[in-house]
Specification:
The structure holds two protein chains of two kinds.
Chain A (H helix, E strand, L loop, with lengths): L6 H13 L4 E2 L11 H14 L19 E2 L2 H7 L5 H14 L7 E4 L5 H12 L2 E2 L5 H6 L3 H8 L5 E3 L10 H16 L4 E6 H10 L9 E4 L4 H8 L4 E6 L2 E6 L8 H9 L4 H11 E3 L2 H10 L2 H5 L5 E3 L16 H12 L3 E2 H7 L4 H13 L4 E3 L2 E3 L5 H10 L8
Parallel strand pairs in A: 3-6, 3-7, 4-5, 5-6
Antiparallel strand pairs in A: 1-7, 2-10, 8-9, 9-11, 10-11, 12-14, 13-14
Helix pairs in contact in A: 4-5, 7-8, 10-11, 16-17
Chain B lengths: L1 H10 L5 H28 L5 H7 L2 H21 L4 H18 L1 H16 L7 E4 L2 E8 L3 E5 L5 E5 L2 H4 L2 E3 L9 E7 L5 H13 L11 E7 L2 E8 L7 H18 L9 H7 L1
Antiparallel strand pairs in B: 1-2, 1-5, 2-3, 3-4, 6-8, 7-8
Helix pairs in contact in B: 2-4, 8-9
The chains are: A alpha/beta, B alpha+beta.
Chain lengths: 404, 272
């Protein structure tokens, strides 16, 4: 029999909630981590000063000249970065889906790099669900109804559609096919879970009122500073705040997250993938001089704590992709399109934007030089390191952005 | 003659080099302040959120007016003995002279002051006065400068607001309503065509998604008239946006099998 929970139960539940690293929440409970006031002011001033810089991107910093130490090689960096924890995420997603049952077909709205798609795929693998893989984008451009055949072929089987944004394009024909697809999904009797990028969801809310059809909505919970502290400490790293930066070494983690992680959580807007990429970008091997200084100083801290084997670049000195000057409106439209569809091939982008087709390639390569886009297997996308800057620029210029 | 000299001597001060230098300094500092404000503010606000730009930019003419008024108030006591009688005499004489010689000019100046407070137009607004349509580039004391879609600068005296209606398409907002018209043969599925046109607007990269998209359908003697109404992200994109809606709208209607209407010339003219 269910009854009113006792006070002790509530405290216990609250304690469990604090312990939960990975969560899936209803969208209205999503709260973007806020930056410390000092950081907000600093960011404002930095962005203001950027207006007066040359439109040419600054030359990349020579690692030998970087006073904060050399960047880690890929293998070393991989060891130091926190694990993706797909099993844990998948388990939490399964619990959340169970709790949201009865509201109809569930949808996981996934902000860029937040890991919702990966959790869905893991869940499908564990439960033996089929995965609706997206067709090539060029096919969607010419024959958008292809997606219907994909779904029809999986008629009676439990299904996960991990990325709805890859099943349509922002064209009238594709929207028409998408309406039919969503109708077919709604008619399915076999268990079905839908995943959709947060940018595509925002667009589809206005374009086809998708939110009226799917009431059971979940979003990966944001990682605040405390959660990042615990997650980043998993590869046995100890984080200690020191004069604007963070020292990282082997050893147990303290209770309080450094202010550095508050800034990082706010900059990443709570997205796990973005936060992880920012953290990886900040990790450095200590320069030899500093190592000697540390050992020569012999101060109390050094005696009490093991000497750090990694440094984190002070937040102010962290070089992240940024627009070299005023962002061109064409570039912003292109970036918005990439975010909407979670990446696009150049040929497809050419067909979808009302610019001179040759110009699309030029703009993509120019944005890539600034680190704002990257190309993997022919698919151009906004990488996690660039996402905070791109989202901010789009929002400042009046373009619509996602809700997270 | 002596009497006239004594009157002017009573009104005007003895202007020595120091007084002239003071006056010149005030003029120079005021001019510099105006130049700095007008040059620096747009640059500083260049990347500020558009709401901030639209809130601050219209204040520039007011700031310029304030600087000039302060400069005049500072200079007059240097040139004139600042007694009440002298000021009344000076201002009265100035008013009569100006009233006769520069009636229209002064009318535009007053209209400019009224325009600053009533704000029928602000910097960056898209306005239509008489036959002229364009974006406000500069708000002077006497006139407003607009840039037409053909990239022509038109200077319109503020005095035109006394006798002309001023149409302001965005009224301080960042965006404005754009309309694309389509004329179809009446034998088609109107529901499908309407939804197709809405999707055309929804899929335009220029669209401001937060504002409504509306398709209005009206039956005419010669066919069906569709008006697709939507807002672009930036008012400056209005012509590109309307062109994009028109080009892709025609493609979509053709895909849906809707034939264009062929109105009789007389009807087409009346429809205007």
């Amino acid at each position: 029999m269910k009854g009113k929970p006792r006070m002790g139960d509530e405290n216990e539940a609250a304690g469990e909630e604090e312990e939960t690293l990975w969560r899936f929440l209803p969208p209205h409970e999503y709260a973007t981590p806020s930056a410390p006031a000092r950081e907000a002011v600093r960011q404002g001033i930095t962005r203001f000063l950027q207006r007066f810089r040359s439109d040419e991107p600054p030359p990349p910093l020579d690692e030998a000249e970087d006073p904060h130490g050399a960047a880690l090689e890929d293998a070393a960096l991989h060891r130091r970065l926190p694990p993706f924890m797909l099993e844990e995420r998948g388990a939490r997603l399964a619990e959340a889906l169970e709790a949201a049952g009865g509201l109809g077909m569930p949808v996981v709205i996934d902000p860029p790099h937040a890991g919702g798609r990966e959790a869905l795929r893991h869940l499908a693998a564990v439960r033996g669900y089929r995965i609706a893989e997206p067709p090539p984008r060029a096919t969607l451009l010419g024959e958008p109804e292809t997606i219907l055949a994909t779904i029809d072929a999986l008629d009676a089987q439990p299904l996960v559609v991990p990325a709805l944004e890859r099943l349509f394009l922002r064209t009238p024909q594709s929207l028409e096919a998408l309406r039919l697809l969503l109708d077919r999904l709604q008619e399915r009797t076999a268990p079905t879970v839908l995943g959709c990028g947060s940018w595509a969801w925002r667009f589809l809310e206005e374009a086809i009122e998708i939110d009226l059809s799917f009431q059971a909505r979940l979003v990966p919970g944001p990682l605040d500073a405390a959660r990042l502290h615990r997650w980043f400490s998993m590869p046995a790293l100890r984080c200690v705040e020191r004069s604007g930066g963070v020292l990282v070494g082997n050893g147990p983690c303290g209770d309080e997250p450094p202010e550095y992680l508050r800034r990082l959580a706010a900059s990443a807007r709570g997205s796990a993938g973005t936060a992880r990429a920012l953290w990886g970008e900040a990790l450095r091997l200590p320069p030899p001089d500093e190592e000697q200084e540390e050992s020569a100083a012999g101060n109390e801290d050094a005696e009490k704590q093991p000497r750090p084997d990694l440094l984190v670049v002070p937040w102010q000195r962290l070089k992240l992709p940024a627009f070299p000057g005023k962002a061109a409106r064409d570039d912003l439209m292109l970036l918005q399109l990439l975010l909407l569809h979670d990446g696009l091939e150049e040929t497809v982008a050419r067909a979808m934007l009302p610019f001179e087709p040759a110009r699309i390639g030029t703009r993509l390569r120019s944005l890539a030089r600034a680190g704002l886009v990257a190309c993997e297997d022919g698919l151009w996308h906004v990488p996690p390191l660039a996402y905070p800057s791109v989202r901010h620029e789009l929002s400042s210029a009046g373009f619509w952005v996602d809700g997270y | 003659m002596d009497g006239e000299e004594s009157i002017s001597a009573r009104i005007l001060r003895n202007l020595d080099s120091t007084a002239l230098l003071d006056a010149a300094m005030i003029v120079a500092v005021s001019a510099l302040a105006i130049v700095v404000i007008e040059q620096l503010t747009p640059r500083i606000l260049g990347h500020a959120p558009r709401r901030t730009q639209h809130a601050v930019m219209p204040l520039l003419p007011l700031a310029r007016l304030l600087i000039i008024v302060v400069a005049i108030i500072s200079i007059v006591p240097i040139i004139i003995e600042p007694t009440v009688q002298n000021l009344i005499a000076f201002l009265g004489a100035a008013a009569v002279a100006i009233g006769f010689a520069l009636k229209d000019y002064v009318s535009s100046l007053f209209a400019g002051v009224v325009a600053m407070f009533e704000r029928p137009y602000r910097k960056n607004d898209w306005i239509e006065i008489g036959d002229d349509y364009g974006q406000v580039r500069d708000l002077g004391f006497r006139a407003v400068q607009i840039v037409t879609p053909d990239d022509t600068v038109v200077t319109i005296p503020h005095g035109r607001i006394w006798e002309n209606n001023v149409r302001n398409a965005n009224d301080g907002a960042a965006t404005l309503l754009c309309v694309a018209d389509f004329y179809l043969d009446p034998r088609h599925d109107a529901g499908r065509a309407r939804r197709g046109l809405r999707d055309v607007a929804m899929t335009s990269p220029y669209l401001d998604l937060a504002r409504p998209v509306v398709v209005i359908v009206k039956e005419r003697p010669w066919g069906t008239h569709y008006r697709l109404k939507a807002y672009p992200v930036d008012a400056a994109d209005q012509f590109l946006f309307t062109s994009d809606l028109t080009v892709r709208g025609k493609d979509e209607l053709a895909r849906l099998g809707c034939a264009p209407a062929a109105p009789p010339p007389a009807v087409a003219t009346n429809e205007g």
